[in-house]
Amino acid sequence: MSQHYACISFDFDAMSGLVARGLTTPTPVSRGEFGAIAIPRILDLLKRYEITASFFIPGVVIGTYPKECELILAAGHEIGHHGWTHVPPANLTPQEEEDGLVRGMETIRKLTGNVPRGYRSPSWDLSNSTVELLLRHGFLYESSMMGNDHEPYRVRQGDVVLVDEPMQFGKTTSLIELPISWTLDDFPHFEYLRVGQSLAPGLQNATGVLENWVNDFEYMSQTCDWGILTYTCHPYVIGRGHRMIMLEKLFEALQEKDAKFITLEQGARLYDQRSPFNA
Question: Does 133 fall in a domain?
Answer without folding.
Answer: yes
